[in-house]
Design brief:
By secondary structure, the protein is an all-beta fold. It has no helices and 10 strands. The strands form 2 sheets. Strands 2, 4, 5, 8, 9 and 10 form a 6-stranded mixed sheet that branches. A hairpin with a 6-residue loop joins strand 8 and strand 9. It is elongated, with a radius of gyration of 14 Å. The termini are far apart.
């Protein structure tokens, strides 16, 4: 089994910054991809990228630690959402890749 554990969410004022972390653990052979999605109330879950954030967000990965980070700067109220970590994982050599999700971490941007 594979677990993705997110941390770093919370309440921040507009213009502030937060850094989210997601660590993958368990019976992992390799991780093909790791990334972030978010879901605001009443909206569909969407992929978070540097481009879609207008350059305000940066995603980085520590392959040795099976960890992905989301650095969010100049946060806006519209960034308020639950942020989910996602990973595409191989459990064995030559096996298929499986999609895993973290439990989500709340980010609230408000004054």
């Amino acid at each position: 089994q594979v677990q993705l554990v997110e941390s770093g969410g919370g309440l921040v004022q507009p213009g502030g910054s937060l850094r989210l972390s997601c660590a993958a653990s368990g019976s992992i052979f390799s991780i093909n991809a790791m990334g972030w999605y978010r879901q605001a109330p009443g909206k569909q879950r969407e992929l978070v990228t540097t481009i879609t954030s207008g350059g305000r967000f940066t995603i980085s990965r520590d392959n040795a630690e099976n960890t992905v980070y989301l650095q969010m700067n100049n946060l806006k109220p519209e960034d308020t959402a639950v942020y989910y970590c996602n990973a595409l994982v191989k459990l064995r050599v030559g096996g298929p890749s499986y999609n895993y999700w973290g439990q989500g971490t709340q980010v609230t941007v408000s004054s």
